[in-house]
Amino acid sequence: MAVPIDHPRAAFIFGILGNVISFFAFLSPLKTFKRIWKRKSTEGFQSLPYVVALFSCIVWLYYATLKTNVFLLVTINSFGCAIEIIYILIYMIYADKRARVKVIRTKSVEFMPILLSSILTVSAIMWFCYGIFLKDIWITIPNVVGFTLGLIQMVVYLIYRGRGER
Fold first, then answer.
1. What is the dihedral of CA 54, 31, 95, 88, to 10 degrees?
2. Domain presence at residue 130
3. SS (HEC) of 89-156
4. Which residue, of 2, 36, 62, 88, has the greatest Cβ tally within 10 A?
5. What does pTM read for this prediction?
6. 135 phi and psi angles, rounded to 5 deg
7. Which letter, b or e, does each residue of 34-54 get, where b requires 16 or more Cβ atoms within 10 Å of its Cβ?
8. Are 128 and 144 in contact, with CB atoms under 8 Å apart?
9. How many CA atoms lie within 13 A of 108 on its CB side?
10. What is the full per-residue pLDDT of the chain (166 aa) written as tens digits?
11. Which residues have C-beta within 8 Å of that of residue 157, sequence separation ≥ 6?
12. 165 inside domain
């Protein structure tokens, strides 16, 4: 795919879009965590998506220390670190060690956050475009992976929605 040589304006636009979408992606689990807080139980919700999101933000912040002119990466990933730490703390407070719901095993997507999966997939597309316009393979490639995994999650959701409800 041929990418035009210099498009700082396009990179900036996709960076802003990536920040806005990532902001909403980080806030999309609020309903889940209000439910956990209110019921004082994690029920069947898993912490892995939030731990992975925190790790991802930390890696992006580290990458930003190696680059220049990546203010947009720093701002959104700093916010992401803060919000993911709050989610993980809430989860740890109310975690039920016996509750281990697996989507494939139970064929139920009750505890699979499709809104989060969808927003993260769109976010990966925005950051992919940002990386393309900056001609930065280290931003582009991870977001190809993110987009692909997001699509897989949404396919699993579509396959199992409405099944396995008890």
1. 20
2. yes
3. HHHHHHCCCCCCCCHHHHCCCCCCCHHHHHHHHHHHHHHHHHHHHHCCHHHHHHHHHHHHHHHHHHHH
4. 36
5. 0.63
6. 55, 45
7. eebeeeeebebbbeebbeebb
8. yes
9. 11
10. 555 556 788 889 999 999 999 999 999 999 999 999 999 888 878 788 888 888 889 888 989 888 888 899 999 999 999 999 999 889 888 876 544 445 556 666 666 677 777 888 888 888 888 888 888 888 888 888 888 888 888 888 888 777 654 4
11. 109, 112, 114, 117
12. no
Query: What is the domain count for the chain?
Result: 1
Residues 6+ apart with CB under 8 A from 110: 44, 101, 165
Q: Tell me, what amino acid is at 7?
A: H
